[in-house]
TrEMBL record:
InterPro entries: C-type_lectin-like, C-type_lectin-like/link_sf, CLec_Tetranectin-domain, CTDL_fold. One of its GO terms (cellular component) is extracellular region. GO terms for biological process: calcium-dependent cell-cell adhesion via plasma membrane cell adhesion molecules; immune response; induction of bacterial agglutination. The lineage of its organism: Eukaryota, Metazoa, Ecdysozoa, Arthropoda, Hexapoda. This is Lectin-24A. PANTHER family: C-TYPE LECTIN DOMAIN FAMILY 11 MEMBER A (PTHR22799:SF1), TETRANECTIN-RELATED (PTHR22799).
Length: 282
């Protein structure tokens, strides 16, 4: 500490001599330089410097230690922040991978369902065609069998109430009213079907025998396809129609069955109960 004080004093003396124009600067012992005058004057300054030197050194060391601690703490926090960022990136990447996998699985499932649906649709259409072909074959075989039995017996086996109108035999129900399905069932029990009219001459001959105030079911409906009126007896499209004004007209899905009212054909509700006309054979 004393050396530091001496150094300060020497610097002061050097500065004084330099300013006085001394050409040669020599550092001499302190008492010799001061001549007993400046030393007592500078002594308090040197003592003050000596006393506080340790404090200054300690303060500087404390500040340096605090700075190092702060730097270490900042490094720790920075490392933790980097780790958090890495974890967040890894988590987001994992979520993106899961989302991509779920989307691929959903797409694959959708494709599988579409394939199954197409297969079932084709299978159902094929089954419908097969059933329709079987039904037509059975109807054809029944008609042939009816013809064979008629040929064997020599006469037609008609239930009471059938009458010949034109070239065929028909039964006109005037007493009982049934819905379309029940009417068809009764005609089948009588050996026939609900009637499908083939020609205008046949239609005109039949309507002349009907009560114009009543409605009569025919064996024609469009249950399979709207606009395609099919004969219940043959399973084929009915070619002859004598539509009333605005017909065929539908108010709801139940209006699929054809009937005769006031000498004209109308599309009506199949569940309503009406009189009906049966035909013998196909």
């Amino acid at each position: 500490m004393f050396r530091l004080s001496v150094l300060v004093l020497n610097l002061l003396l050097v500065s004084h001599e330099f300013s006085a124009g001394t050409a040669k600067i020599e550092i001499q012992p302190l008492p010799a330089l001061c001549n007993g005058y400046c030393f007592p004057t500078l002594k308090p300054v040197m003592e003050y410097v000596a006393i506080h030197q340790d404090k200054w050194n300690t303060c500087t060391e404390i500040l340096a230690n605090e700075a190092r601690k702060d730097q270490i703490q900042l490094n720790i926090q920075l490392d933790a922040l980097k780790a958090d960022v890495s974890n967040i990136k890894a988590s987001q990447l994992s979520k993106d991978e899961k989302l991509d996998r779920m989307e691929r699985e959903q797409f694959a499932m959708h494709e599988s369902l579409e394939t199954i649906n197409r297969y079932l649709t084709v299978k159902l259409d094929r089954t419908k065609l097969q059933l329709e072909a079987i039904k037509n074959t059975m109807d054809y075989m029944k008609a042939q069998m009816d013809g064979y039995f008629s040929a064997i017996n020599g006469v037609q086996c008609l239930q009471p109430g059938f009458e010949k109108i034109g070239d065929r035999y028909f039964y006109i129900e005037e007493d009982v009213e049934l819905n379309w399905l029940d009417a068809q069932a009764k005609c089948r029990r009588m050996g026939g079907h609900l009637a499908s009219i083939k020609t205008k001459q046949e239609f005109d001959a039949i309507v002349e025998k009907l009560d114009d105030s009543k409605s009569y079911f025919l064996g024609v409906n469009e249950n399979t396809k709207t606009g395609d009126f099919v004969s219940a007896a043959s399973g084929k499209s009915c070619l002859y129609h004598e539509w009333g004004p605005g017909e065929p007209h539908h108010n709801n899905d139940q209006e699929r069955c054809v009937s005769i009212l006031r000498k004209l054909m109308h599309v009506g509700n199949c569940t309503y109960e009406k009189r009906f006309i049966c035909q013998y054979g196909i």
